[in-house]
Amino acid sequence: MAYKIIASQCTSCTACEAECPNVAITEKGGTFVINPKKCTECIGYFDIPQCVAVCPVDNTCIIDNNFPRYQPRA
Amino acid sequence: MMYDAGPSIDVTDEAGGSVGDIMQQIADHKGCGTSGGSGKASCGSAAGSGDLAPEIWEKVKNHPCYSEEAHHHYARMHVAVAPACNIQCNYCNRKYDCANESRPGVVSEKLTPVQAAKKVLAVASTIPQMTVLGIAGPGDPLANPAKTFKTFELIYNTAPDIKLCLSTNGLMLPDHVDTIAKYNVDHVTITINMVDPDIGAKIYPWIFYRNKRYTGREAAQILTDRQLMGLEMLTERGILCKVNSVMIPGVNDHHLVEVNRAVKSRGAFLHNIMPLISAPEHGTVFGLTGQRGPTAQELKALQDGCEGEMNMMRHCRQCRADAVGLLGEDRSAEFTTDKIMAMEVDYDIDTRRAYQAQVEDERQAKVAAKQAELGTLAGEMSDVKILIAVATKGGGRVNEHFGHAKEFQIYELSTAGAKFVGHRRVDLYCQGGFGDEDSLDGVIRAINDCAAVFVAKIGGCPRADLVKAGIEPVDQYAHEFIEQSAIAYFKDYLGRIRTGEITPVVRGDADIRQGAFIAG
C-alpha cells in the first residue's frame, strides 16, 4: 500500500517532500521517510508516483512489499 | 546543481533610463577586458565602466560575480537553502555531500531561511566587503521557491544594502519572474548549455516538470523553451541576466557560439563559459564515462570567439553553493550554523559604508596608475601577444609568494594593454616550509602557456625550474598594481625582442585543475 525510501541512498534533498500529494513524506533522522498509512502511490492524483519521478537517485523510492498495493475506493 | 551564483538587488537604482533603453544598451554592449582601442570594453577594467551604460555599471560595479575588477575588492556569499532540484544534469551528482568534495553544487550544511538570514548578517558584520548574497542551490532555487523567497524577504528587511542574486536552471523561471521582481532581485543567472534539444539530450537525462518526468529530446525541448522564455521575461522587466554555460568538449563546445547568439539577442548582458568539471571520483555521469573537460587554451579560444558578440566573464571560480568570501577564497568554515547561532550580531551599516568608500579610493588609484602606464605604450607597434601568470592575494596587486599561491591570474599582454583572461588553480607548492616537486610540476603545467609569472617573492629552486620550463619568474613588481606592472613588463619585453635578447616562442597549452574552491 505504499512506497518507501531507501535511507542509505537518500540525499535528503527534500524534493519529494514538496511533491507528495498526500503530505506523507517527512524528515526523520537526517533522511526522508514515507508514512505508509498516508501513501496512495499517487493513485487518484497522478499517473506516476511523484516521489519516484522527482528523486535524483534512481531506485531510491520503491514499492514497500510489506504492504499490499493501494486499492482506490470505488 | 548550479554552477556559481550571480546577481543582485539594487535598491538604490530607481532612476536612470527606461527599461527598454537600458536593455538596448545592454544588448549593444560588447567586450570584456582592459584592452583599449579595439572597440572592446571591459567588465571591470577601467574604473571601469568601459562602454557599459552608466545604469548597468552602477548595478554591477561592486558585484564580484559580474565585474572582474570588483572581485578583487568585494565578497559574495551563497546560502544553501535550496536543496531540491527538478532536473538531472550529467555533470552533477547529488549523492555525495561532504566537506572534502570540492566541486560546485556541493554543500556541507543545509540552512533554513531563518538560519540563512542570520548567517548573512553575521558574515556581513565580520566581512565589510561582503556586498552580495546569492542563492544557487545546492539544488535549484526555483525548485524551492518558498525557502528561496522567504530568505530574500528576511534579508531585504534587515540588510537592504546587500544585493540579492539567484542562479537557476531556468525550468521554473517563467512562473516566478513576478516574484523575483517583487523582492527586488534584479540580477539573475541562468545556466544554459544548449538551445538545440538533440544536444540537450546528451546533457540532461531527465527533467521533472508539472508533475511528470520527461526524458531525452522532449525534456531538453521543454527546458530550452522555458529558459529562453524566462530570459526574455526578465529582460522585459529590466532585470539583469547573466548566462552560465558549461563547456563540454565534443558535446556542446561548438554549439555554445550559437547559445551565445541566442542569449545575447534576448538581452543577457554577460556570458560565463565555464570548463566542465568531471573527475571520476565525483561520480557524475560524465566523470564515469570519461568525458573530458576542455584545456585552458580550448576554453580561452571559445571565450575569445564569443567576445565579439557580447561581454564574457573570465573570472568565475565555480564555487560551491555555500561559499563565503572573496572569489577564490572560501571562509565558510568560520560560519557554521552552530557558530552563527551563538553569535551576537550587530549590523552596522555605517562601518560597511566607510570600508566601501576606502575600497573605492583604492580602485581609483589603481585605474589611474594603469592608465598612466598605458600611455607609455602609445606608439609601440607589435603583433606580439603573451600571457603572464600573477600570484595575488587580492586588491589588484602582485602580493603573493609563488609557493603560497593557490591560484594564478592570467593576463594577456599586447600593445592594447593588459587584459584579464582567466585564472588557474594549483596545488600549493610550498607545504610546511618545504617545496614539493610534484606540485611544482603541476603548477608549471597549469601556467605552461605563460611567458612569465609575477610573484611577490620566489625561492631559488622553483625559480630555476621555471626558467628551465621557459617561464620567466618576475619579482621586481612585488606589491605593485598588477596591470600597471604588466604593461611596464610588456614594454620592456618588446624592447628585449628588438635587441634580440629574447625570441618570442609559441607556448603550449595548459591544464585546468578539477574541482571547486573549498576552504583552506
List its salient traits.
A: 74 residues; alpha+beta; Alpha-Beta Plaits; two-stranded antiparallel sheet; two-stranded antiparallel ribbon; 4 strands; B: 520 residues; alpha/beta; TIM Barrel; Nucleotidyltransferase, domain 5; five-stranded mixed beta sheet; 15% strand; disordered N terminus
Description:
The complex is a heterodimer of chains A (74) and B (520). Chain A is α+β, with helices and mostly antiparallel strands. Helices cover 14% and strands 19% of the residues of chain A. Chain A has two helices and four strands; from the N terminus they run E-H-E-E-H-E. Chain A has helices spanning 15-19, 50-54; strands at residues 3-5, 25-28, 31-34, 61-63. In chain A, strands 1-4 form a two-stranded antiparallel sheet. The relative contact order of chain A is 0.33. Chain B folds into two domains: 19-339, Aldolase class I (TIM Barrel), CATH 3.20.20; 377-498, Dinitrogenase iron-molybdenum cofactor biosynthesis domain (Nucleotidyltransferase, domain 5), CATH 3.30.420.130. Chain B has helices spanning 19-28, 54-60, 113-126, 145-158, 173-182, 197-203, 216-236, 256-265, 285-289, 296-307, 337-342, 349-375, 437-446, 460-468, 482-498, and strands spanning 75-78, 87-88, 130-135, 163-168, 187-191, 206-209, 212-215, 240-247, 270-275, 324-325, 386-390, 407-414, 417-425, 430-431, 434-435, 452-454, 472-474. The longest helix of chain B is centred in the last third of the chain and has 27 residues, at 349-375. Chain B is α/β, with parallel strands linked by helices and 520 residues long. In chain B, helix 5 packs parallel to helix 7 (216-236) and helix 12 packs parallel to helix 15.
Strand-helix topology:
The complex is a heterodimer of chains A (74) and B (520).
Chain A lengths: L2 E3 L9 H5 L5 E4 L2 E4 L15 H5 L6 E3 L11
Antiparallel strand pairs in A: 1-4, 2-3
Chain B lengths: L18 H10 L25 H7 L14 E4 L8 E2 L24 H14 L3 E6 L9 H14 L4 E6 L4 H10 L4 E5 L5 H7 L2 E4 L2 E4 H21 L3 E8 L8 H10 L4 E6 L9 H5 L6 H12 L16 E2 L11 H6 L6 H27 L10 E5 L16 E8 L2 E9 L4 E2 L2 E2 L1 H10 L5 E3 L5 H9 L3 E3 L7 H17 L22
Parallel strand pairs in B: 1-3, 3-4, 4-5, 5-8, 8-9, 11-16, 16-17
Antiparallel strand pairs in B: 1-10, 2-6, 6-7, 11-12, 12-13, 14-15
